[in-house]
Amino acid sequence: MPVLQPIVNLAELLSQKGITDVVVAPGSRSAPLTLAVARHPRLRVRVMADERSAGFVALGMAQQSRNPVVLICTSGSAVYNLAPAVVEAYFQQVPLLILTADRPHEWLHQQDGQTINQTSLFGSHVKRSYDLPADYSHADARWFIERSVNEAVTLCRSAAPGPVHINVPLREPFYPTADEPVRPEPVRVIDTLPAQPTLSPESWHGLLNEWDQYERILLAVGQIPHDPALLTVLRKISEEFMIPIVGEITSNTFQNNLFITHTDTFLTGMDDAFGESLRPDLLLTIGNSFLTRNLKTFFRRFPARRHWHIQPTTDRINDSFQSLTTIIPSEPLAFLEKLFADLDYQQFLQGDDADDTSAFLNRWQTADRQAARLVRQTVSGDDTRLTDWSAVQLILDQLPGPSVLQLANSMPVRYANLCGVDEAQQLRVFANRGVSGIDGCLSTAVGAALMTDKLVTLLIGDVAFFYDRNALWSAPIPPNLRIVLLNNDGGHIFRIIDGPSRQPELETYFETPHGYTARNTADDARIEYTICNTLEQLQSLLPDFFAVSQRAKLLELSTDKRVNHQQFLTYKAKSSTIGSQR
User: Which residue has the higher pLDDT, 557 or 177?
Assistant: First the structure.
């Protein structure tokens, strides 16, 4: 047996378990892993020199495919650079399989280079950690490796999906000789059949009875991937039972004639009377985190009498609104489809008329429409100066579909949520709202563009962009990527947050002004580059910017942070009037 045959077999097993994509950060200790995947005919391998960027590229790829993407790096501090992407994948429930090369453990604390304690390095931010043996002479070692890889891939996919770490100690020699055959041996695939949790008839009828006790029912959708079937059943539930469906842009519940999407505006500065008029008796929630503070504050300040959260697993209690009464272990789509079918049949038998419950839905929809008008007035008023917000609204209005929208953290995702997008545009929206850091936003978009032929448009601020420039360093940038850079020369969000905005140290210690443009970065990466500083110019540039091209494109929008701030202050003053209506 060649000295590293089990590593060659590992690549074959990954392929047979349905994995197709690998991201490699180059290194010497990881050479056996790299060669095994690079020489495998059914694995697509991308190379990213910066480990932090590589992690987020893999994250973006897995966001699109919902299938585990393998991430390979060498030993030592390189492994720690994967941590930001790993924790984002963990809280966003994105499947990553991390293979970290390591020195044999007996060399730890022996002043040997690139040697740290990598076992369980990611702690509780992975679903599980495996540590493979460094010696393969005994058949049990090869059996253990095969069994562990089977288990790791299955665990990566299972509900809820997430990252899994396999640490791989490797001895020299790392490279096969010229006459050494490098072919996989037969491997054993262990399939784990999927199963859906089911409720007992008693539990299900108990939920239906509880539903019947309440008239003011509301369903709120957190961050969740785009799912046409889910949108269909949500629409049916709202239309049939007069139930408000509340979502945000990261929920992939978009503007139509039913869904409530402007809560961040009309829940600003709400008084008690307005809040009470919108308080649900029964709240249903699905998905992961919610984006805006105003929505979370509303549900905490005016808690529902009963709160159901539908999630596939019951290992953790997610009580973000501090009102949870029932965890329902189910996939949201399956639960809501059965709920709709049973309630619809029950209504048919009883001849119920839902008109008497329409007042609750009308209150939410009326406030939502007022908020939508206020946002339009804010960004399309008499002031024609280019601002971050007016630019985002114009770009979202003209964004072609079907396509993918990637939203960087800080202000871009918030501006996009305030504006919203129309359901008819057929967009799929992604944002790293698991941990909500600015690190890796550009890399994630690069990874997304690698996995689809559709246009991928990233809205990103200047601090996040320059922080993650290594995303554009290694691999050829996919030509379907469009980067919109909102450059206001600093961390604009700190000018909007009440605390730091009132401090004399605002500009020096919070906003981080820099004076950079992206021209040189774009030139280095061979990306088409345009800079713009007026709304009129932006309007004229967008058709060509979104057009098909042989190269990726970067559109830099130069705005004045003080003008941005004044626009936002004007909006806040007006939005508070919606939440104080009697």
Answer: 557
In total, the chain counts a number of residues equal to 582
The pLDDT tens digits for 67-115 are 999 999 999 999 999 999 999 999 999 999 999 999 999 988 888 888 8
Report which DSSP code applies to 477: P
DSSP letters along 93-147, please? Answer: T--EEEEEEE--GGGTTTT-TT----TTTTGGGSS-EEE--S---SHHHHHHHHH
Range in 14-18, 368-372, 396-400, 512-516 the model is least confident about = 512-516
C-alpha neighbours within 13 Å on the C-beta side of residue 130 = 23
Helix 358-379 to helix 411-419 angle, to the nearest 10 degrees?
Answer: 120
Answer yes or no: is pLDDT of 178 > 80. Answer: no
Bridge partners for 217 per DSSP: 282
Give me the residues paired with residue 457 across strands: 405, 482
- Which tokens hold the place of 100? 């970290």
CA separation for the pair 11, 70 (Å, rounded): 10
Distance CA 203, CA 326 (A): 11
CA-to-CA dists, residue 463 to 8, 340, 513, angstroms: 42, 45, 9
Cis previous bond, 173, omega within 30? yes
User: How far is 146 from 326, CA to CA, in rounded Å?
Assistant: 40
Query: How far is it, in rounded angstroms, from Cα 100 to Cα 79?
Result: 7
Cα torsion angle, 32, 33, 35, 41, sign: positive
Do strands 456-461 and 528-532 pair parallel, antiparallel, or not at all (unpaired)?
unpaired
Q: What are phi and psi of 175, to 5 degrees?
A: -115, 135
**Which residues are registered as beta bridge partners of 101?**
168
Please write the tens of the pLDDT for every residue from 425-438: 999 999 999 999 99
Structural domains of the chain, ranges and CATH numbers in brackets: 5-169 (3.40.50.970), 201-367 (3.40.50.1220), 380-576 (3.40.50.970)
pLDDT single digits (tens) 470-481: 999 986 899 999
Do the beta carbons of residue 483 and residue 554 sit within 8 Å? Answer: yes
> Of the candidates 500, 503, 517, 512, which has an alpha carbon nearest to the alpha carbon of residue 557?
517
In three-state secondary structure terms, 428 is: strand
Mean pLDDT for all residues in the chain: 92
17, 18, 21, 25 alpha-carbon torsion, rounded to 10°: -10
**Which of 136, 130, 138, 123 has its CA nearest to residue 165?**
130
Task: Supply angle C-alpha 496, 272, 282, rounded to 5.
Answer: 100
Q: Do 282 and 304 contact (CB within 8 A), yes or no? A: yes
* Strand ranges for 67-173 from DSSP E: 69-73, 96-102, 129-131, 164-169
Instruction: Give me 270's structure tokens.
Output: 């709400």
Q: Which pLDDT band holds residue 6 (cuts at 50, 70, 90)?
A: very high
Q: What pLDDT score was predicted for residue 83?
A: 97
Containing H/E element for 208?
helix 201-212
Q: How many Å separate Cα 507 from the centre of its chain?
A: 30
For the chain, the first-to-last Cα distance in angstroms comes to: 80
Give the separation between CA 267 and CA 274, rounded to whole angstroms.
9
